[in-house]
Amino acid sequence: MIHFLRKIRQKMLSENKVTTYLLYAIGEIFLVVVGILIALQINNWNETKKINQSIDDHITILRENITADQLQLIESIDNMTEQFNYADSALLQMQTIIPVDNQLKKYLGKLMLEHRFKPNRNAIDIILQSNELPYLSPELQTAIQDYYALVESAAEREQIANQQIQSKYESYINRHYPEFFQNDSDWSFVKTVLQNDPRKTVNIDAGKFLDDGELAALLASRYYQSQQLKNMYQRLLEQTDTILSILQVQPESR
Predict the structure, then answer these.
(1) What does each C-alpha distance from 162 to 30, 111, 151, 157 come to in angstroms?
(2) Alpha carbons 63 and 177: distance in angstroms, whole number
(3) I need a surface site. Which of 63, 109, 153, 179 has the fewest CB within 10 A?
(4) DSSP secondary structure, 186-211, as one string
């Protein structure tokens, strides 16, 4: 093709057809430019196709991550509901609204348990590292950003609650109410660990418990933190529903 065009140019020059040659040269340049633009367009199409495929793959992982988070959040809400009820029941006993009974051992023991929500961040980390977030729909971008902002807030609340358990509540119960760790506890974990313990069980001293102002403050803190975490996990669960709803309506990333 190039050889053919060169022959045409040489022929026009030899015949002194300068004007015709100039027009031909302009046309040839035009064809070259058009060819370059077509090549660039094809390249852009290919790059866009690759990006879209990558985003769709990552959206699939995101959907799986959020679905897994939902299961964990449902369990976390159940755990915090349980913790809240334990703190509430212990406080009701301390206020003599309900009688002090042996379940108090379980309440005091299980309120030492720490809880953490661990979201699956595989997809969002890849999306951020690949700078693909701007390619998502504005609605999905907002939903994702709101969700992970709530994740950070939940982590801060968990840190506060767990630090209180570690530095205050757990050490206080171990020092002042070691009776919680006996095989007559209604906490299945304790019963299993101490099922063959031959030692005589001892009840928590009701008078000591009812007069313990410091424990009342610690139980009130556990009550408050459990309620706050439950509310936080509920908000996170609602946000996962929002993300999955958007992905269902807009399965494509664009």
Answers:
(1) 71, 11, 16, 9
(2) 46
(3) 153
(4) S-HHHHHHTTT--SPP----HHHHHT
Alpha-carbon span 215 to 205, nearest angstrom: 13
pTM, full prediction: 0.79
Cα(83)–Cα(99) distance, integer angstroms: 19
**Is residue 194 within 8 Å of residue 181, measured between CB atoms?**
yes
- For residue 56 the two structure tokens come to 């769709």
Q: How far apart are CA 228 and CA 222, in angstroms?
A: 10
The tens-digit pLDDT sequence of the chain (254 residues) is 555 556 655 655 565 555 665 555 666 676 666 666 665 565 555 555 666 667 788 899 999 999 999 999 999 999 999 999 999 999 999 999 999 998 999 999 999 999 999 999 999 999 998 888 888 999 999 999 999 999 999 999 999 999 999 999 999 999 999 999 998 888 888 989 998 999 899 999 999 999 999 999 999 999 999 999 999 999 999 999 999 999 987 644 44
Task: Determine the distance from the C-alpha atom of residue 227 to the mean position of all C-alpha atoms in its chain, rounded to a whole number.
Answer: 20
d(CA 117, CA 240): 14
Structure tokens at 247: 């992905």
DSSP secondary structure, 120-150, as one string: --HHHHHHHHTT-GGGS-HHHHHHHHHHHHH
Residue carrying structure tokens 């299980």: 110
Angle at 81 between CA 114 and CA 180, to 5 degrees: 55
